[in-house]
C-alpha cells in the first residue's frame, strides 16, 4: 500500500483562527458487511463520488468501513488484513482532490505490541497520504479490541486547506465524566489532547452499536466535546446489522458552541453534505434531519432496530425467505410482523402446528394474523406424531408419572418439522422466544429454540406487549387493519403444555419477573440487593436460581439481536458450571 505524507501537526500551541468559510463535510453513513471487502470497497467509492459530486470538501466514513465492524478473529486469517489494505489502495486510487477519510485495519510493522491498528486512512489524489490510529480500545461488553489492536498514544491532527483537523475513532471521544468505562484508560483523554492543539474541526469515525437510550448519550458526548474543543465536531456512525449487533447510524454534527447543526437518519443509510464552521448556524439541511432516539417513541426505535437487524442478518447470510411458527400467542405474532417488515409478505410463511391440546382460539388467532399480514399459511397437525413419539418412549418411561419430559415432546416435534421446512425451502427459521423466557429457561432446548435467529431474545415480555400495541396503533394511524388479533394481546400467555395451563403457573407475573431480571441480569445486582429494593426474597431466589441453572440452554440458543445494554450472548460471559450465590 503506497503512502505519502500530508502535513501532520502535533504538539503546536498556535491559536486556531476558525474557518475562513464554512466547510462542506460529506458524511457517508453506510451499511457494510464484515469481510465483504469488494462489496464494501464499491459502496465506499460510490458514496465518495456521490458526496464529492454534491460539493463535499472532505468525505468521512465509519470506523473499519473497509473490513466491516466487528471483524473479530477474521483478523487472524493469514491474508485478511493484507486484503483489507489492498482494498484500501483501490479506494485511494479512486480519490481525487476531495480527500476521503476511511476506517480500515492497518498492519503494525513495528515488531512491538499487537499485530494491527484500528486506523483511518486519509486518501487523496490516488494515494493514502496520512494514517491516524485509534487511541482507546474498548474491551468490555461486546467489545474486545485489545485482543487485536495496538493503541496509539495520541490522536492525529492534520493541516488541510488552511484548517486544522483532529481525527478520532469511536471510543476516543467516550471519555466524558458520565461514562463509567473511562476509568479503563488510565487518565488518557484524546479530547483533552486535541483541545491543547486548537483544532478547527474534529472528526470521529464510529461503529457504535445501538441499544435503546443510547442516542441521547452519544449526542451529549459530541456536543460537550465541541464545547471543550472550541470547534465543530462531526461524528460519522455505521448503520446496519452484523451478527447480533445493530448499528443505528444517527451520525451528528455540532458547532463549536455545542449546538446540533445536522443529524442523519436512524436505522438507514444516508449520504449528507453538512456545512460546518459558523457557530450556532445550522446547515441548510439541518431542518430535515431525523430526530434521534430520545425524541422518538422508544418502542418505534425497538421495532426499527429489530427489522434492520433481522433484514441484515438474513440478507448478509444469503436468506431471502423466512419461516415463523405461529402459535396464536403474542410472541410469534410480533415476530411475524417483524418478518413481513424485513422480508416482505411474499417471502414469509407462517405455520400452525396444533397438538391435541391446542385451543381453538390459538388456531384461529394464528390464521387471522396470517390473513392480516398477507403471508402464506400452512397447518401441520402434530397430534399423531406426538402420540407416536410417546408410544415409542412408552417402554422406557414405564412406571414413571407424566411430567415435563412428555410436555416437551410437542415442542420438539414442532422443532423437527419447522427445521425440515427450513431445509427443504431454504428459508431461515425465526425463533420466537423473548428475553424473559430465555432468562429463566422457559423454553425447550431442541424444540421452540430451534432456528437460525432469535429475533426477540433481547426483548422482555412486557416489551413484547408494548411492541404489539404499538404495531396495531401504528397500523390504525396509517388507516390499515391492525395485524395482531386483539385476543393474542388480551389472553393470558400460555405455552399450552397441558389443558388450561398459563405461564403464571410457573412464573411470577411478567411485570414483576421483568423488573427482577433487569436488576439481576442487566444491572448485576445480587439477590440481597434485589430484596433490599423490596422484592420478596422467595421470588428473587426462585428467579435467580432459574437464571443460573439455564445458562447451558442459552449457550446453545440461536444468536439473537441486541437491543438492551446487556444481552445474552457475547457481551455476557457467565460460566455454565458455577455455584456462586450472592
Could you give the topology of this structure?
Layout: E1 23-29, H1 37-53, E2 58-60, H2 80-94, E3 100-107, E4 116-124, E5 127-133, E6 156-160, E7 163-169, H3 190-195, E8 201-206, H4 214-229, E9 233-237, E10 239-242, E11 245-248, E12 252-254, E13 260-263, E14 270-276, H5 298-316, E15 322-325, H6 330-343, E16 348-352, H7 360-373, E17 376-379, H8 383-397, H9 404-425, E18 428-431, H10 435-440, E19 453-454, H11 461-477, H12 486-490, H13 510-522, H14 527-532, H15 537-549, H16 551-555
Q: Structural class of the secondary elements?
A: alpha/beta
Q: How many distinct domains? A: 2
Question: Which stretches are low in confidence, meaning pLDDT under 50 for 5 or more residues running?
Answer: 2-19, 279-296
Under the CATH scheme, which class of the largest domain?
Answer: Alpha Beta
Average predicted local confidence, pLDDT: 90
CATH superfamily of the largest domain: Carbon-nitrogen hydrolase
Strand order of the largest sheet: 5-4-3-2-1-14
**Strands, count:** 19
Distance between the termini: 54 Å
Largest sheet descriptor:
6 strands, mixed
> Which architecture name of the largest domain does CATH use?
4-Layer Sandwich
* Overall radius of gyration: 26 Å
What portion of residues is helical? 25-40%
Question: Roughly what fraction of the amino acids lie in strands?
Answer: 15-25%
Shape by Cα distribution: elongated
Quaternary state reads single chain
What would the CATH topology of the largest domain be? Nitrilase/N-carbamoyl-D-aminoacid amidohydrolase
**Count of alpha and pi helical runs:** 16
Amino acid at each position: 500500500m503506497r503512502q505519502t505524507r500530508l502535513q501532520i501537526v502535533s504538539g503546536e500551541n498556535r491559536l486556531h483562527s476558525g474557518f475562513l468559510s464554512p466547510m462542506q463535510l460529506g458524511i457517508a453513513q453506510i451499511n457494510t458487511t464484515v469481510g465483504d471487502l469488494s462489496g464494501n470497497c464499491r459502496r465506499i467509492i460510490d458514496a465518495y463520488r456521490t458526496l464529492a459530486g454534491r460539493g463535499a470538501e472532505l468525505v468521512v466514513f465509519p470506523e473499519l468501513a473497509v473490513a466491516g465492524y466487528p471483524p473479530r478473529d477474521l483478523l487472524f486469517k493469514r491474508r485478511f488484513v493484507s486484503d483489507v489494505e489492498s482494498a484500501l489502495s483501490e479506494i485511494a486510487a479512486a480519490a481525487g482532490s476531495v480527500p476521503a477519510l476511511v476506517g480500515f485495519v492497518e498492519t503494525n510493522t513495528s515488531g512491538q505490541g499487537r499485530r494491527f491498528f484500528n486506523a483511518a486512512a486519509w486518501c487523496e489524489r490516488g494515494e493514502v497520504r496520512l494514517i491516524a490510529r485509534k487511541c482507546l480500545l474498548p474491551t468490555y461488553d461486546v467489545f474486545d479490541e485489545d485482543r487485536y489492536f495496538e493503541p496509539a498514544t495520541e490522536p492525529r491532527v492534520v493541516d488541510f486547506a488552511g484548517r486544522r483537523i483532529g481525527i478520532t475513532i469511536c471510543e476516543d471521544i467516550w471519555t466524558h465524566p458520565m461514562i463509567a468505562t473511562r476509568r479503563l484508560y488510565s487518565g488518557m483523554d484524546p479530547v483533552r489532547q486535541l483541545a491543547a492543539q486548537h483544532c478547527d474541526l474534529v472528526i470521529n469515525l464510529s461503529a457504535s452499536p445501538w441499544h435503546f437510550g443510547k442516542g441521547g448519550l452519544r449526542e451529549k458526548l459530541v456536543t460537550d466535546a465541541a464545547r471543550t474543543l472550541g470547534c465543530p465536531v462531526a461524528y460519522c456512525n455505521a448503520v446496519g446489522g452484523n451478527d447480533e449487533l445493530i448499528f443505528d447510524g444517527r451520525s451528528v454534527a455540532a458547532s463549536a458552541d455545542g449546538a446540533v447543526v445536522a443529524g442523519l437518519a436512524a436505522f438507514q443509510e444516508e449520504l449528507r453534505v453538512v456545512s460546518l464552521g459558523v457557530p450556532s448556524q445550522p446547515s441548510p439541511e439541518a431542518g430535515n434531519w431525523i430526530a434521534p432516539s430520545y425524541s422518538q417513541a422508544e418502542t418505534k426505535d425497538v421495532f426499527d432496530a429489530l427489522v434492520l437487524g433481522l433484514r441484515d442478518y438474513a440478507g448478509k447470510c444469503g436468506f431471502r425467505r423466512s419461516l415463523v411458527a405461529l402459535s396464536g400467542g403474542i410472541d410469534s405474532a410480533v415476530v411475524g410482523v417483524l418478518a413481513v417488515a424485513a422480508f416482505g409478505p411474499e417471502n414469509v410463511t407462517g405455520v400452525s402446528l396444533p397438538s391435541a391440546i391446542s385451543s381453538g382460539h390459538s388456531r384461529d388467532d394464528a390464521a387471522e394474523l396470517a390473513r392480516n399480514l398477507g403471508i402464506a399459511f400452512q397447518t401441520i397437525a402434530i397430534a399423531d406424531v406426538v402420540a407416536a413419539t410417546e408410544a415409542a418412549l412408552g417402554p422406557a418411561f414405564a412406571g414413571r408419572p407424566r411430567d415435563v419430559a412428555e410436555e416437551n415432546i410437542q415442542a420438539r416435534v414442532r422443532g423437527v418439522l419447522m427445521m425440515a421446512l427450513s431445509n427443504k425451502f431454504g428459508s431461515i427459521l425465526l425463533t420466537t422466544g423473548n428475553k424473559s423466557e430465555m432468562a429463566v429457561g422457559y423454553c425447550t432446548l431442541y424444540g421452540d429454540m430451534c432456528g437460525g435467529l432469535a429475533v426477540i431474545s433481547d426483548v422482555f415480555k412486557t416489551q413484547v406487549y408494548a411492541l404489539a400495541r404499538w404495531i396495531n396503533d401504528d397500523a390504525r394511524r396509517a388507516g390499515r387493519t391492525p395485524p395482531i388479533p386483539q385476543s393474542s394481546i388480551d389472553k393470558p400467555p400460555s405455552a399450552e403444555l397441558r389443558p388450561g395451563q398459563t405461564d403464571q403457573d410457573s412464573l411470577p407475573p411478567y411485570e414483576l419477573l421483568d423488573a427482577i431480571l433487569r436488576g439481576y441480569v442487566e444491572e448485576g445486582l445480587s439477590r440481597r440487593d434485589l430484596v433490599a429494593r423490596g422484592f420478596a426474597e422467595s421470588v428473587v431466589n426462585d428467579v435467580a436460581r432459574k437464571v443460573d441453572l439455564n445458562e447451558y440452554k442459552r449457550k446453545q440458543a440461536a444468536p439473537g439481536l441486541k437491543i438492551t445494554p446487556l444481552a445474552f450472548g457475547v457481551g455476557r460471559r457467565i460460566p455454565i458450571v458455577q455455584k456462586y450465590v450472592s
